[in-house]
Amino acid sequence: MKQLLSGNEAIARGAWEAGVHAAFGYPGTPSTEILEALVKLPDVYCEWSPNEKVALEAAAGAAIAGTRSMVTMKHVGLNVAADPLMTLSYIGVVAGMVVVVADDPGMHSSQTEQDTRHYARLAKVPILEPGNAVDCRDFMIRAFELSEAYRCPVILRSTTCVSHSRFLCETKDRQARERMPFERNPSQFVPLPLWGRKLRVKVEERLDRQSTAAAAAADLNREFLRAPALGIISSGVAALHCLDIFPDASVLKLGWAWPFPDDLIRAFAGKVQRLVVIEEGDPILEEHIKALGIACDGKNIVPRTGELTPARLMQVKSAIDGQPHPVPTAIADAADLPARPPILCAGCPHRGLFYALSKFDVVVTGDIGCYSLGVFPPLSRTDVILCMGGGFTLAHGMSKAGETRPVVGIVGDSTFFHSGITGLLNMVYNRGNATLIVADNRTTAMTGHQDHPGTGKTLMGDPTIAASIPDIARACGMKRIRVIDPNDIDNTIAVFKEELYVDEPSLIITQAPCVLNDKSAVRAPLHINPDACKNCRSCLKLGCPAIESADKKTKPAINPQLCTGCAMCQQVCKFNAITKA
Amino acid sequence: MKHDIVLAGVGGQGILTIAAIIGEAAVRQGLHVKQSEVHGMAQRGGAVLAHLRLSSDPIHSDLIAAGSADVVLAVEPMEALRQAESLSPRGVILANARPVRNIGDYPELDDILAALRAFPLNVVIDAEQVAQDAGNARAMNMVMLGAVSPFLEFPDDLLATTIRDTFARKGPEVIAVNLKAFAAGREAGLAVKR
């Protein structure tokens, strides 16, 4: 049958049809919806693991135990999970295992723009690159087959555009699969150096066989032979854009580009007069093709950063033709429009945390999550962000460096479990001195409200043990632990006054549910009484999107559609002008 | 037949619902459908954009190049203007006139509306007011769907049927309000189409 599926839904569908038995992951845009789609299909075990390393290792265990398994993450997640991937390439799997990684060219919701193909080369495992949802479903099934054929994990690399675009997909029934037996074999599964050196050689032999197979895999690597004057080698969604934008060019769309299908590349290059490599991300194909002794254009005319959108490919086309690019008629008024960055939602409990912090001269190291938005004015209370868990560890390092202002390290509840615990343990163990904050809104909010070890519920919807952040901190040796409600601004400021200046580590857990996730936290909207309002604009310092003010002469007003009644503005109003509507 | 549609708005305003309903209707028509969504970083409050391509002939790419969209449909006026460069010279731009002012430096609204009304084919309406009159201000996105409906070559009842199916789980009252909002928006679109 045919279904309109997003790339992420199609990845889930393909995995399900391939008989995947167990799926693991950590949420991360643009990969999150894969497991959310898969968990709705029958007979698959799905879980959110605390981080990507745990997820990849668990998937490896499932595949070594003889069931098809998969793991999902965004590109930066593979940084966390890189360690087990490298070794898994050596010891291999019994049943097929696919590592699904979603890159984010253009950095729509990421701190870096990474090209996961580098990891495939580093780990020496095949990587498949779907260009749309149809490919996603088909390639996922092929990825399991390849993984089993070569007994190694296979990476499926999506991108934001591929994951979030919907296409009509042909879908079929699920394959029935039996568990393959796991048989003890330490020389295969235990990479001590005496066995590891032999495995190392086998990996290189495997790459040679895969290169030959990739060159012959016409379903994954497709030639669109049109006129011979111009040949384009491309992959992923960029290859599909090229098919539309260069209607006369011959296109080699590589879906299995590593290990490089050298024979296919040579043959295609021989069929065209001029060769251009158009790849989103780094010049990985281009450099290899040049190393083969084949002349081609590439990043000299193709942008190195960002998405290769049709608009940008039109510019590449002009460069290929040697024509000046016709600039589209600029809409003069549109050019100067202000950007609309994401902001903390109306009623977000993180607002109370950052507003209270804005009353102190502190250095704040933040983390990856909604609370990253505390950096924007008027709150402006985040100074450095590195990575998940980095909120705690950066703070420790800064305090050890002798930073004279109090140092505050923030992580979220989900990132506390992801990689915050080790940082907290380290600070206590090594006698650091910073104030650590867990911005605990009881969910993984930024990616769309996924459960985590602290929520008491699994991805399968089952109740489970809810890990306690204070208990974990106590077990790590943390002595000063406070749990407060950041919606209570006066108390939050008072607790900061007590904790920021003590001479030992302290942990403050600001705990209140995300109002988008827990509707029971939403109350009746508030109203600003214009007669009582003196236009002092104190409420605007909260940066709440529900409080609107067209210009400095206009008294602020609350938009009742957006207001969730959190009453922070009521607390900061000196004139009692804010009441229930 | 080909319709390249750019949808824009602010996170939480419901453009993805519009995209889903048009996409589903196109599938029922047996058209080739490609739909691309780019969410803002946060769930709410940032600018959001979706591209929707419908065609009777096969198409490869899911994105619409600048200057080639047949329709720009925005549920917020500044976001309409931001995406206006996508519009082809023969295209129609539709915008909800009610701003979302969640940024400090929101431009003069009258200037934005004047710029939108300067397009040869434009539908600029206070969709939130129209939706409120229909029973619920939050059905604003269905008003805008109604407004664009005369410009899409669908059989008369197809979009209404798809709305009914989309909101089936939410009960007859929600369906009725959304259909009423859709019909009111359609009138506004028809007035310009004629």
UniProtKB/TrEMBL annotation, chain A:
This protein's record includes keyword RNA-binding: no
Names of the cofactor(s): [4Fe-4S] cluster
UniProt-listed GO biological process terms: small molecule metabolic process
Top-level class of the enzyme under EC nomenclature: oxidoreductase
Annotated positions binding [4Fe-4S] cluster 2: C544, C563, C566, C569
Short name of any one Pfam family annotated for the protein: POR_N
Subunit and interaction comment: Heterodimer of the IorA and IorB subunits.
An MF annotation (GO) of this entry: indolepyruvate ferredoxin oxidoreductase activity
Reaction(s) this enzyme catalyzes, per UniProt: indole-3-pyruvate + 2 oxidized [2Fe-2S]-[ferredoxin] + CoA = (indol-3-yl)acetyl-CoA + 2 reduced [2Fe-2S]-[ferredoxin] + CO2 + H(+)
Domain (4Fe-4S ferredoxin-type) ranges: 524-552, 554-581
InterPro entries, per database record: 4Fe4S_Fe-S-bd, HACL1-like, IorA, Pyrv_Fd/Flavodoxin_OxRdtase_N, THDP-binding, TPP_enzyme_TPP-bd, Transketo_C/PFOR_II
The enzyme's E.C. designation: 1.2.7.8
PROSITE patterns, per the entry: 4FE4S_FER_2
Binding-site positions, [4Fe-4S] cluster 1: C533, C536, C539, C573
Cofactor binding: number and manner: Binds 2 [4Fe-4S] clusters. In this family the first cluster has a non-standard and varying [4Fe-4S] binding motif CX(2)CX(2)CX(4-5)CP.
Its job: Catalyzes the ferredoxin-dependent oxidative decarboxylation of arylpyruvates.
Keyword Iron-sulfur annotated: yes
Name of the molecule in the record: Indolepyruvate oxidoreductase subunit IorA
Keywords: 4Fe-4S, Electron transport, Iron, Iron-sulfur, Metal-binding, Oxidoreductase, Transport
Automatic annotation (TrEMBL), chain B:
Keyword Amino-acid biosynthesis appears in the UniProt entry: no
EC number, UniProt record: 1.2.7.8
EC supergroup of this enzyme: oxidoreductase
A Pfam family assignment: POR
Molecular functions (GO terms): indolepyruvate ferredoxin oxidoreductase activity
Alphabetically ordered keywords of this record: Oxidoreductase
Residue ranges occupied by any Pyruvate/ketoisovalerate oxidoreductase catalytic domain in the UniProt entry: 11-187
InterPro entries, alphabetized: IorB_Oxidoreductase, Pyrv/ketoisovalerate_OxRed_cat, Pyrv_flavodox_OxRed_cen
Listed transmembrane segments: none
Entry-linked PANTHER family: INDOLEPYRUVATE OXIDOREDUCTASE SUBUNIT IORB
UniProt name for this protein: Indolepyruvate ferredoxin oxidoreductase beta subunit
